User: Fold 6-phosphogluconolactonase from Haoranjiania flava.
Amino acid sequence: MQITVAKNRDALNRKVADFLLQKEKEVLQEQDFFTVALSGGSTPKALYRLLSGDAYIHQFEWSKWHFFLGDERFVPVTDEQSNAGMCYKNLLEHLPVQDQQIHFFKTENTTPEKSAQEYEAVLRNFFTPAKTMDVLLLGLGTDGHTLSMFPYGKVLHEATKWVDYFWSASQNMYRLTLTKAAANLCSNAVFVVSGEDKQQAVYEVLKGSQPPQIYPAKLVDPLNGQVYWFLDEAAAAALDR
Ligand SMILES: O=C1O[C@H](COP(=O)(O)O)[C@@H](O)[C@H](O)[C@H]1O
Assistant:
């Protein structure tokens, strides 16, 4: 595992952007496409704007990228809560990419169950049984969740399917998510975490003794891949305790 701590959120995002440049280069020496699962929520918005802005947009080989999503809320893409909508707005709408390069969950004119099954098929068609995405971008909730793997969720036990769904009563919506089975076949799991409100969760996941049922991000442990944590100083503050 590699932990990188940056002074603040802007410096953190630059480090992640440089890491992605390096990984893209390495991967494209071995194969002619680069697969990345984007994370949702609010933290990656600034990273996505950085990647699609003047400083970085011309540095990547976007035509070689294939974009996936780590998890999704079962709402239309136009809904404020849609992870896909956030990714389009902050990143994809600004990039020279074709629709065929974007592989997201369907959330309209379908059911959560069908959507999960279809996404499973999309992933199984694209990847091999031994390896999923080159880079899996991940966030961390203040409660220790990553993807839509929430504390005590039944999805935490799913060891075979790559995609699952569940009803979240507290959020009043269905959620769709890659499971630990898919996450742990990625080549590079990359957590990007910023802000003081995340410091306790960061501490518990990296140094605490609580089980993964309570801090689900602990379940991310790729079989043949690496885990990277990119933190800003505020998120990392409790690690020195
Ligand atoms: O609900 C979600 O939360 C996590 C963390 O999001 P953040 O807003 O605290 O940055 C995110 O990684 C996940 O994709 C999202 O669906």
Summary: The pocket of LXAUTJHC is lined by residues 39-43, 70-71, 83, 139, 141, 146, 148 (CB under 6 Å). Strands lie at 2-6, 34-38, 65-69, 71-73, 102-103, 135-138, 163-168, 173-178, 188-193, 226-232.
